[in-house]
Amino acid sequence: MINILEKEKGLFLPTYKRIPLDISHGESVYLYDKKGNKYLDFFSGLGVNALGYANSDIVYAVNEQMKKFSHLSNNFITDVQIEFAEKLLKYSGMSGIFLSNSGTEAIEGTIKLIRKVKGPDKKIFSFTGSFHGRTYGALTLTPKEKYQHGFEPLLSNIFYIKFNDIEDLQNKIDSNAAAIFIEFIQGEGGVVPASDEFVEKLNELRKKFSLIIVADEIQTGTGRTGKPFAYNHYNILPDIVVTAKAIGGGLPLGAILVSKEFRDVFSIGSHGTTFGGNPVACAAGNVVFKKVFEERLIENVENNGEYFINFLNKIKNDFQKDIKEVRGKGYMLGVEHFYDCSQIVEKFRERGVLVNCTNQNVIRILPPLIAMKEHIDLFISEYRNILKEKNI
Predict the structure, then answer these.
(1) How many Å apart are CA 38 and CA 281, to the nearest integer?
(2) b/e map of 48-67 (b: 16 or more CB within 10 Å)?
(3) Are strands 23-27 and 323-329 parallel, antiparallel or unpaired?
(4) Of 66, 82, 152, 213, which is least surrounded by CB within 10 A?
(5) Where along the chain do the CATH 3.90.1150.10 domains lie?
């Protein structure tokens, strides 16, 4: 393992803090390293692997599509793209789609669309605690100094509002506002849901000022929260939805979804992509939608998510000096500690469980959507043991 980490340093730009595991393969909700160790993966590739690892239906669909063609220019349209687009529009409630390679590319395309509709002088807003990507437009929408520092100047006319702060929202949204990007449950910000009152006020301001609401559902979409999208937990339908991660079944795929009003903003040649909507990725994505929605995997997430959060709250009650709050919905859960949680993540890994620490002190839990109660029970047991040992 030391050898492979040394090789990595000599080959790649130093942009990642690598996890010191040499993975050989994955199966269902588990990853295996080359030493034969088994890990319960409750991070699922940053929320990408909705159906876990080596899903036989995805493997079959991908192989069958590869036999036909792995890529065609988007000058052609394919049945597999049509099927995928129909499913995604059906479950999102939107009317038109553009397929990209990733979430951050979908964010960039959405900024272009907004500028096209509203012009360059109108303001675009996002929220503190948000994360929208690392390309220039997406980076500008992400108000974190650790990501933005050294890459200035960023895009102009993009501003920030305090998340869940109704007063700040009212003070900054007026007739000069073009659009606002919102994660209805912030991921990197610490798994923080928007309050009902905040979303209600946001909807009022949309009606008053013709504000475009963009839902960033890159991490929260495709049943992750027990609903098709996180905005389904609220009494609101966005104007534009941006999604990615799980929709490609582990392959690169993103999407811009728009309401009927914005279907004809782009014209031929005004936006495009070489690999976006790749047929192999769409074939995998069709399997994901079939499993999550048609075969009702989403009900597993909703029911077991409640089971999971109840047990996490029991741990919180038993370890009140360690845990401040438990948040989230479905299989997107966060446990906020009173201290940096990086060592907790390491302890989990030592015990054969993979999770992530975000916003410095929040354990972010993103299981594959196929995770069952037995897997949750194992996670809860190890969590208790870690905190017990810490407090001895």
Answers:
(1) 28
(2) bbbbbbebebbeebbeebee
(3) unpaired
(4) 152
(5) 2-55+296-390
Within the chain, all domains assigned CATH 3.40.640.10 are found at 69-294
What is the C-alpha to C-alpha distance for residues 197 and 234, in angstroms, rounded to an integer?
Answer: 10
- Note if the bond before 120 is cis, omega within 30 degrees: no
Contact, 230 vs 185, CB < 8 A?
yes
CATH no. of 69-294: 3.40.640.10
Q: 2-55+296-390: what CATH class?
A: alpha beta
Global pTM exceeds 0.85:
yes
pLDDT greater than 90 at residue 391:
no
Residues in the chain, how many? 392
Give the integer Cα–Cα distance in Å for 23 and 112: 39
Percentage, residues of the chain above pLDDT 90: 97
Helix (H) or strand (E) holding 383: helix 373-390
Q: Is the pLDDT of residue 202 over 90?
A: yes
